[in-house]
Amino acid sequence: MGETAQPALRADGRAARRHGLGLRLWLSGGWIALLALAALAAPLLAPHDPLAQDLFAGRLPPFWVAGADPLYPLGTDSLGRDVLSRLLYAARIALTVALVAGALTCLIGAALGLVAGFYGGWVDLVISRLIDIWMSFPPVLFAILLIAVLGTGLSSIIIAIVVIDWTRFARVVRAEALTQARMDYVASAQIAGMPRRRVIWAEILPNVLPTIVALLTLEMGIAVIVEAILSFVNLSISTDDPTWGGMIAEGRISIHQAWWVLAFPLVALFLTVLAFSQLGEGLKDRFDPVLR
Amino acid sequence: MLRALLTRLATTAVTLIGVAVIVFVVIRVVPGNPIAMMLPPGATEADIARLEAFYGLDRSIPEQFFIWAGGVLQGDFGTSISLRQPVAGLVLGRLPATLELSVLALLIALALGGTLALLGTRFRGHRTEAAVDVTNGLALSVPDFLWGLLLIIAFGVVWPVFHIAGRVSPALDLPFTTQFYLFESIVRFRFDLTADLLAHMFLPAVALAIPLAAIIGQLLKQSLKETMHLDYVTLARTKGYGENRVILREALPNAVLPTLTLVGVQFTFLIGGTVIIERLFSYEGLGNMAIDAVINRDLPLIQGIVILFAALFTAVNLLVDMSYALLNPRLRHG
After folding, report:
1. φ, ψ dihedrals at A182, nearest 5°
2. Which residue has the higher pLDDT, B328 or B115?
3. Residue A82: beta bridge partners?
4. Distance (Å, rounded) from C-alpha B177 to C-alpha B96?
5. For B297-312, what is the mean pLDDT?
6. B142 touches chain A (CB under 8 A)
7. Coil, strand or helix: which one is B79?
8. Which residues contact A212 (CB under 8 A, 6 or more apart)?
9. Is B66 a residue whose pLDDT tops 90?
10. Which of B194, B196, B261, B249 is nearest to B224 (CA)?
11. What is the average pLDDT value for chain A, to the nearest integer?
12. Does A277 sit within 8 Å of B149, measured CB to CB?
């Protein structure tokens, strides 16, 4: 009985997942597109200079709370800076980090993983051992350490993320390349006289690509979080530039007087991280040859 | 078995030495002189040079490494520059706080994840199962840092039932002789102190637990699903056992093993998460100390903490591998 029931059950689950898949991809992709637009148009959309302080307008609540000033729709922080404008400008930094750090991490990690998985031998041994060593660092501590070494700034954050997270790609891509390299089609390509370098590019890479794309999307979400954590401990870019993490750190201090300073950047961060990870998971399911 | 264990120990040692070398080299390229930072502005060049010699910072990096490694083998991890105390004592003094938080988080994760998996299995096909899947997905997508912030708003501000900063109320008189406050308060039957400690530790522990709970929930549910289709479970059902008994007594014991292995690996990620969560909740553990050490450029302290974290990670992995070999009869002779 179990034997016959199982496949039917699984097909059911698959249909249900595919049904929910479209909506999930649209919602998460939509949020990211919206955010990207808002970030690009920040100078046009922001009602104030994100750095301008107005000490007479400190800790104004958002518009629906009594005592709000309509000039500051989402309220102000303790220095009287406009929360909405700061949110918009901070989105630029978050998305820049996501894009650049994500892409670089992907390139380096995937390349090392492909090489290790395909060539095997001592190359694989060295890369695998490196991955092991990397994995025994607590990542947040590692990131803070690197920022202390590199100094603060946007490029330091990006370098730190690449240095820490290449293992995420390397580990998964190595395992996939290893399985692919043992498949008959790879053997036949080699017997047919295809050089090994071309086998990687033409045969293995296309089969691993869906995994890489899904990982890349997930990595972008992680990059956003790492940037927020670093600016939360005040090690991100200069303290002048608005970042979600920096706003959260300020909000954490004045949480009992002005909850909105913490709440709005938190919501923005939460939705963005959720969107990237749902997009990644959704793409993984869509590309999965078994589910397709 | 013995040979496998020895190989495993050897690779562990290589990993730890690798970590030590990397940390040692990386933090010595740090711009900014830690000695200049600890002296008052009027200090002369000679003062700086004398202190540098005291901390051994005037030697070459390989030389410094061998002096440090020699000390480590004798249990001497150097002297903290910012706190001016032996690193070993400082670090070991903070370790219990972090261990207690991590273990509490692990227990919460097991309870939450187990409940989710059992609910999803008991009510499979119902709305409950869909709700469990959505909960798992959401919990997995968002990292502990954000859960911590949400918990702070929810249970620290909107409905202030828990403490959001510190390890224990500072006004309390603590009769403890070790740093394992929570454990000692239970052993000494001082449940008033246990309650206060838990009120402080609960939110950070839950924040750390949520992502792990989701992983446990997902994996255990999956392996329960597979087990529920096995013939012996069908047999138990034909004997007329109730659904609850079939799940708890028949399927669960067999479904638990793969989950447990994964929990071990994931537990190291949880320990890594304590760094930022302790900072967020001003909890006086190792992670919070680590961030201060980095900000103060306290080289010996950073080194000590990172090595300890790495040792902790590898020890947990080693334990997991060993217990897996013991629990899984197929691996016992191999």
Report:
1. -90, -5
2. B115
3. A76
4. 12
5. 86
6. yes
7. strand
8. A106, A110, A169, A173
9. no
10. B249
11. 84
12. no
B153 and A225: CB-CB below 8 Å? Answer: no
Residue in B with minimal Cα distance to A125 = B11
- C-alpha B171/C-alpha A212 separation (Å) is 53
B26, B31, B140 member nearest A145 (Cβ): B26
Q: What percent of chain A has pLDDT over 70?
A: 89
> Which residue from A minimizes the CA distance to B30?
A149
Nearest to A173 by CA among A97, A255, A116, A224: A116
- Percent helix / strand / coil, chain B, rounded to 5: 75, 0, 25
To the nearest 10°, report the CA torsion of A208, A213, A217, A218: -10
Q: What is the ipTM of this complex?
A: 0.83
Residue position matching structure tokens 């002789």: B177
Checking if the pLDDT of A5 tops 50, the result is no
pLDDT of residue B13: 84
Pick from B146, B290, B294: CB nearest A273? B146
Beta-carbon separation of A141 and B305 below 8 A: yes
Q: Which residue of A has its CA nearest to B270?
A: A138
Contact A264, A74 (CB under 8 A): yes
Residue showing tokens 């629906």: A64
Chain B, 302-331: which have a CB under 8 Å from a chain A CB? 302, 305-306, 309-310, 313-314
